[in-house]
Amino acid sequence: MKSHQNLLFILLAGLASAAFAQEPLTHTKDSLDTVKENVKAGKAVIVDVREQEEWDAGHLKGAVLMPQSKLKVEAEAAELAKKLDKSKVIYTHCRAGRRALACGEILKKQGFDVRPLKAGFDELVKAGFEKAEK
Question: Whole-model pTM?
Answer without folding.
Answer: 0.82
